[in-house]
Amino acid sequence: MSIGLSVHIGLNQVDPAAYDGWSGELGACEQDAVDMAGLADSAGFDVTGPLLSPAATAETVTATLEAAAGRLAEGDILFLTYSGHGGQVPDLNHDETGDRLDETWVLYDRQLVDDELFELFGKFAKGVRIWLLSDSCHSGTVARRLPDMLSPQELDRRFSTADPQEVGRRIRAMPQSVQTAVYRRDRDAYDRIQNTRTAKDLARIDASVLQISGCQDNQTSADGIVNGLFTGTLLEVWRGGAFAGSYRGLHREIVKRMPPDQTPNLFQAGAPNSAFARQRPFTI
C-alpha cells in the first residue's frame, strides 16, 4: 500500500535581522498552510507541520524533506506546499537559461535557493511522486509596476484597497531593494550554495516532480485576507473534494478563474511520468 506524506510551509513574516530590517509581513500565508494541511489530512496523508513563520527555517525545512526522502519508496507520494514571499538571487551555475536568476523561497532565517530544493528532491527514491504547490512570487521587479497596470477599481476588488503602497505590501515578492541589500550582505553564503551545485546535479532526480505555482516566473502572486489568491482559487475549484478531474484539469480550472496578470504554471521535472499529471489530485 502506498504512503502519502505532506509538508506545509507558511510565513506571514520573516526575521528582520536576516533581511536587512525587512519583516516581510503578509496576511494569509499561515492560513494557506493550515488549510492545505487539513486538506491533506482528510485525504489520508501523514501530515508534518504546518511549519509556520518562526518554525519555517532553512534548517527545519531541509531536515523535514530529508526525513521524508528516507521514508518514501517507489509508488509513494510527497505533497509539499509553500506559501510566502518569493525572491531571486543571481544564477551562478548557469542552470537558468532565461533570466539568469535563481528563484528562492523566503524562509524565516534565509532564502532557500531553488537549486537546494531540487537537490533535496534528488534524495527521493525512483518512482516517488512529488506534488508541489508554491503560492509565491518569482519577481521582485514586477511588483513595483503592478499598481500602474491595474485600475483603482481592480486594485480595490483584488486587494480591498486602491492604495498602491498598500498593494505593494500585499504581493508575495521580496522588494527589489531588499533582494539587493540581502544579496550584497550575504553574497558569500548564497554564492557558496550555488557553487556546490551544478546543472548536472539538478538533472539527477529519480522522483517525478509535478509543480503548480501561483504565477509565472515574471509575475507576482497576490496575498489575501483569508487565503492567497492562488490557494483560495484552488480550494474553490476543489470544492471540498467534489472536483473529479486530474492534476492537469485542476490547473486548467484554476487558470480560468485567475486574473490575466497572475497565471498559475504547471511544471514537471525529474523522472518522466506522464500518468502522474492525469491522476486525481490528493490521491495516495
TrEMBL record:
It comes from the Bacteria. Pfam families: Peptidase_C14. Residues 18-268 form the Peptidase C14 caspase domain. This is Caspase family protein.
